[in-house]
Amino acid sequence: MSIHEIPLSKPDITSMEIDAVTSVLRSGRLSIGPVQEQFEHALAARVNRDFGIACSSGTAGLHMALLALGVGPGDEVITTPFSFIASANVILYVGAKPVFVDICPKTLNMDPQKLADAITPRTKAIIAVETFGNPAHMDAYEQVAAKYELPIIEDCCEALGSAVGSRPCGSFGRVGVFGFYPNKQITTGEGGMIVTNDKRIADMCRSLRSQGRPLPTTPSGTASPTAVGIGGAGVTTAGSAHAGLGSWLVHERLGYNYRLSELHAALGLAQTKRLDHILAKRQRVSDMYFQRLLGNSDVVLPTTLPDTTQSWFVFVLRLATTYTRDERDRIIAGMRRHEVGAADYFPCIHLQPFYRERFGFKSGDFPIAESVSQRTIAVPFYNDLTEREVDFVVQTLELMLTRENIKRS
Fold first, then answer.
1. Of 106, 185, 246, 388, which is most buried by a Cβ count within 10 Å?
2. Which of 246, 272, 298 is the last residue of a domain?
3. What are the beta bridge partners of residue 164?
4. Which residues in the chain land under pLDDT 70?
C-alpha cells in the first residue's frame, strides 16, 4: 500500500487500547480471565441484554447460537442472500438448509412481506441480518416470528450502535451476535459476542466455546460464567459435579475452541468505552459522503428508514440501474488504480460457486438482491477519514463515472 493510498477501512486504535492490551500482557493471564468477563458485561449492558458470551468471531457466535437452539439436519433456516457468506455457511455447519428471502430494494434487508411466504413445517429459525448496519424491519421480523413461534437469531455483526426507535440492535429475537473484525464499529482484531436474555442459551454457548466442558457451579448452585476452562486440569468450583475429577478434561458435549483471549477482550473493552465517540466519528464521515453525492443521479445512496438509527459499518452506494456489472467493475478497478479503496459489497450468496453446485441456485432466483449486488460500490470508510480524502474519493468516483458515460456515447 502506498503512503498516498486511501484504504477501504482502517481501525481506530488509541493509547487507551494499547495500554489495555499491555496491561494484560504484564498480568500473565492471557486467556479465560477477568477482562473477558468485564467485556461481556459492558457489551451486554450496552444492548440491554442480561448475558454476553465472548467468542472468537461473529461466525463462531452464529454457529453456537444455532446449536444452542437445537437446529440440525432436516431443519430449514431462513436468511438473506445479500450478506457476507458466513450468515448462510453457519446453517450448513449444523446440517440444516438455508432458505433465502429476497431483499427490500431500499433497505437491502430481507423483505418482511416475503418472509412469511418462505416458512414451511421444517423452518426452525430465522437469521435476520442487519446489512451494513441498517436495522430496518427488525420489528416486523419479530412479528412474523411470533406468529409462527420461531426464534430469531439477530445477525447484528455489522450493526453495533444501530437502533429501531429506542431499541438497540442486539436486543431483538432470542439471540444476537456481534462481530469485531478490524473494519467493524469496534474491533478486537478477531472476535465476536453472543448476547441473550436466555440463561440456558448463555450457559450452552459458554460450554460450546470451550470444547464442550461442563459449566461449573458456584457454592450457591448457580452457573459460573467464567469458570469453564479456568486454569489447568483439575481446577473446579465447589458445586461442580466433577469436583476433584479433572473437569478441564471432562467434555459433556461436542464443543469447539471458540474462546476469546484476554488480549482481544482488553482491546474490545477499551473500544466499548469509546463507542459513542466512535459512532459520532462514523456519522460525520457518512454525512460528508451524503453532502457530496446527494445530487448525483448516477448513484443511489443508502436509505435509512424513519425511526431507525444506522451506525455505519461501511458506506456502500449503488450505481443507477442503467449501469451494468461490467461497468461497475471497471469503475472499481479505476478507483483502485488511483489509490482509492473500493470493493463490491456483497456478491450474492446463492450465486457463489459452492451454493450453485450444492443447491442448484441460478441467476434470477432472487432478482432484487442480484440487481443490487451487481451495482454496489463500497468506498473508503473509517473513523478518521478527512474532508480532503472524502473529496478525493468522490472526485475519483465521478471521474470513473464520466469515463463510462463517454464510452457509451
1. 185
2. 272
3. 167, 308
4. 1-3, 216-246
Dihedral angle over CA of 84, 79, 73, 351, nearest 10: -50
Q: What pLDDT score does 327 carry?
A: 98
Whole-number pLDDT of residue 409: 81
The helix (run of H) or strand (run of E) holding residue 18 is helix 15-27
Distances (CA, A) of 215 to 51, 71, 372: 15, 21, 45
**DSSP SS3 for 234:** coil
- Its pTM stands at 0.93
pLDDT of 243: 45
Number of domains into which the chain is organized: 2
In the prediction, which pLDDT does 267 show? 98
Whole domain around residue 341: which residue ranges? 276-408
Tell me the C-alpha distance between 63 and 71, whole Å: 10
Q: For residue 7, how many C-alpha atoms fall within 13 Å in the half-sphere facing its CB?
A: 11
**Domain boundary, last residue among 234, 255, 272:** 272
**Alpha carbon separation from 73 to 76, 127, 130, 294, 361 (Å, rounded):** 8, 17, 26, 48, 20
Q: What is the CATH number of the domain that holds 310?
A: 3.90.1150.10
Q: In angstroms, rounded to a whole number, what is the distance separating the alpha carbons of residues 100 and 157?
A: 19
Contact 265, 189 (CB under 8 A): no
Helix, strand, coil percent values for the chain (each to nearest 5): 40, 15, 45
Residue 329 and residue 243 share a domain: no
- Do the domain assignments include residue 212? yes
**Residue 64 · residue 194 · CB < 8 Å:** yes
* Together in a domain, 343 and 389: yes
